[in-house]
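Section 3.1 - Work completed
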Amino acid sequence: MGKLGKLYIELGSTPKALRTAELCLETVKQVGNALEFVPENLKTAELCLIAVKKSMFGDALRYVPEALKTQELCFEAVKHDGTALRFVPEKLKTEEICLEAVNQDGFALQFVPEKLKTEKMCLEAVKRNGYVLEFVPENLKTAELCLEAVKYCRIDALEFVPENLKEEIVKIIAHGEQ
């Protein structure tokens, strides 16, 4: 186990009464996900911001108290890891935050509310990860968008291409391979 893993485990196994603000700050500076073990009364906006910037897999946002989740904090979280969008409260999900999340990691598209998904956002997502075609609303699946997805992951994405576009996409791909 590496140094960071040990720090994380050490804070988690430290008795709560001994988890000082200084200890928590130093640990969170190294391992953002250690916010999980920080006592609620020591969680400040500053500490939570540090945590989301140092988070692995966007998980630190999960441990931020709801009262401290702001537009700015959530934007920083998704800028660092797009999949942190899954921990952004629905009321804070804006087109800007969702687009940032998708630009950082196309897989974040699955956490974008349907009403905020645009053709541009979905195209950006499939350019980064063709497998997310599964999360694109049917009315936004254009030939261009589906072609991008299929270029990325070939046959696997065809499962999510609308029937009326499959033949066209297969012909384009086959022609491009000759």
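Second construct:
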Amino acid sequence: MKNLKLATMGVVLCLAVGGSGAMGQCLYPPSDVYATETWDCSPIEIGWSLVDNALGYRIDRAPVSDPTAVESLGFVSVLPFYDTTATPGVDYLYWVVAQGECGDSEAGGPDTGTIYLPASPQWVQASDNQYCDLIVVSWDTSGGGSNYDLYRSESWDFASALYVGSASGPDFYDYAVAGNVGYVYWAVATSACGSGAPGASDIGYSNFGMSITSDPSDQQAPVGGSASFSVEIRGFASFEWYHDGGQVFDGGNVSGAGTRTLSISPVSSSDAGQYYCVAYGGCGSRESNSATLTIQSDCAADFDSDGTLDFFDYDAFVICFEGGACPSDKTADFDADGTVDFFDYDAFVVAFEAGC
């Protein structure tokens, strides 16, 4: 008996020539083909609707990236079929072919199935000068990783990064760091399926042996003028400035109170006094030497340079004239003749009585 296949009204028929001459129906393509997408490394499940008169089914697969590279995974008589050979992270197309006495049906499908690798962390944060000889790294864990590999480089190129350790979750403590060096960090999520791609990155710094290398210097300024004090440090720090023992804050005529340079403009008589800076870093704090702001006056009789002519100026001159302490940048040689004598006293009295 010879079998012939005919197509009639969309139905494939198998015509038996000879013998009884009976006509049998061949196979429709399987419908409702599906393939699963899994995040837990379980095999991809392929299912379909059963086809009448089918004796079995062949499962075909090809990468989405190359649909012509079709391979047969095997033959089954029951469903579903589990693909245990799929490579995690690769998207596949799946087809199902019904098989019977008349031969194979057309392929049913395709549908796409994937075993997903853990997703890349969407953010990474590395500490900046918060710790002494240490950088703390944290990251996003929403991508489904069961563990995370940490990589580090001194550039933003992941190709140059080196593995520095792993953790089941944040935080990671990197003690193998040098001060004043910026390190870029990546967290790569891993699971039983493999490793995901590197995602976001961040640069971090470690503090170290911070010290003040240059102290503020004395300043002179007239009322209405400007003055500034600066410090230089080795390492990294935050800054606080103090005036006569009280902390200074930005506002009014003051700016830079949280930086290495404090600026005062316009200067008022109340700004006179001692200024110093405290630098705070992950390795401790350092205090600078004090510097003096002296208010310059165009009024010679304003001997204490506070911008006001009063009895305090007279007292200050008398103390200085009698050999006591003189205000900064002041001398009892009031007439500037190189000698301190009664002429200086008379000159001061004349200037004081004349007013400013």
